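[09:14] KT: can someone run the structure on this one? pasting the chain below
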Amino acid sequence: MGRSNGVVQEYNDRPNTFFANDHLWALSKQAALDNGIERPKGYRVSWHHNPDVEEFHFGPSHPMKPWRLRLTKNLIFAYGMDQAMDVVVSRKATKEEMAEFHREDYLEFLEKVTPDIFNEQSLSRYNLGIDCPVFSGLFDFCSLYTGASVEAAHHLVSQQSDIAINWAGGLHHAKKYEASGFCYVNDIVIAILELLRFHPRVLYIDIDVHHGDGVEQAFWSSDRVMTLSFHKYDGRGFFPGTGDLSSHGPTPSYKSGSNFSLNVPLNDGIEDEDYIWLFKQTVQPTVDAFHPTAIVLQCGADSLAGDRLGCFNLNIPAHGACLEFVKSFKLPLLVLGGGGYTPRNVARLWAYETSLCIGTPSLNPSIPEHTPLRHVFEPDGSLLPRLSETSRFENKNSREYLWNIIRVIHESLKLVARNPSVHMDYFPPGIDQLRRELDNEMEEKLRGTKNGRRYLENDVGAYAQVVGKGE
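[09:31] RB: done, structure tokens below
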């Protein structure tokens, strides 16, 4: 059951918001039967979504396309996966909830700015522009995707769900005082803060092709949150240009948060087998050393082969194998979206990973004929096409290179295991004045030093060898 105060609408029967007619609804229920979809036994899954978030538009040439969420929703319902989950139409986050992390002046600016009413100096101050454009309804967009993450965290904390999903969330680049990398409000940080009200330790894992810098920075000095990011890093400007192997928290090692930020920097072209192997070799010892009581997994789809801004050779089942491994720990799990700039593949991935969450991995790979907008997935009409056979990069990740990453991560984890901080620093809703002053000092140093994401990543996906017809 959802909250009883009326701010969340939960559908236990037909979700009229999503299906336009009885015929589609009947076909969806039949698809659930055909695919053996039923509510999982022993645990409960909730999917948090508000269809209004699909309607926003960053601009015709911008790679971020919120309509990917509509494609995802269409697949989830066409297969009948809603039959196995609590489908929650989430409310907007309040400004007060977003202010748990973000500065109030920044939120006030987002609330007031419009494409027709803006100040160039303010745009620069808060890092809005080409990467993070001002579009109609910007604040509502942020409130919608953040509200879904907050409600998903509430479901975990209240034990209404064991796995809570928000594919609209996962915007991991946003900083406390500014937008960054297509992200305006960091719903992940706000959701983790909600989890920390109940859970002593939260593990954040990020499998987006880009470094989860905003989340890492937010919890840089905390020993209650461990961040583990798998991403492309070349030291030459691939956005956001952070997350090298030696970056693992504050120094010296006695400072709070030291060794609680772990990074797995990868080169172009990593393949399925290596990625899954590396993921397991890294995540298992991290869980063993940190002993999290909840996990947040950011499932950015731009790490798939063929992504417009990606550079890996991963196929959908390999990406999903990471989620299944995390699920196997049987800890409260918040599953979020993130990057992903080839919309049809984003939808395929997140629909498939939804099936893993509900314990139905063997869906018919042929997308149901009654799926709205099914033509987007043509010509193959498959849920699980071999993306790496369409577009691929040279694999520049040798086994020696990957073994070195594992070695360094394991050495860092030894320091965590030796001093597990069982007392755990108290992490109040408001950060103390000293930390605020340090953050403000860091802000001033960082201003004016950034390079735009879209400039750095211009046509990055074009460097793949095209072996077939791409997006």
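[09:33] KT: thanks! The longest strand covers residues 225-232.
[09:34] RB: yep, looked fine to me
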